[in-house]
Amino acid sequence: MTPSRTQRDAIFKAFGRAFFKQDLDLMYEVVTADFTWTVDDGDKVHVLDSRDKIADFFEQRRGKFENVRFDDVVFHHAADATFMTYRMTGTDVATGQAFAKVGVERYTFRDGKLTVKDVYSRPAEIEAPRATNSTRGV
To answer: Residue 117 is part of which domain span?
Structure first.
């Protein structure tokens, strides 16, 4: 069964919470037992097709980046898949250098859960910090 848009939004909310907490128990509530996540980090395509591989991937990345933010996140729901577009920024801890990427993620579903996550991203231009407007309307 392919979830409705409303169901997908709930799945992505739970998946996002699990992802940022790196909570595999929570993640596996919304993904299939054979969930596969592929990500190209520029040097290698990682195929994360088990809970242990996802845990190892989280561990390898822990502490490498800080101030990571996802902006301009938009979900595009198609009949059999959802695509997420985004801009990611942060700092590489080893070099202190700021980085930015833009990407597209493709998600497919089975039995009302996420079954595949494919990540495609590339480096993007680092934008100057946006000025904030501290004036509020009266």
So the answer is: 5-123
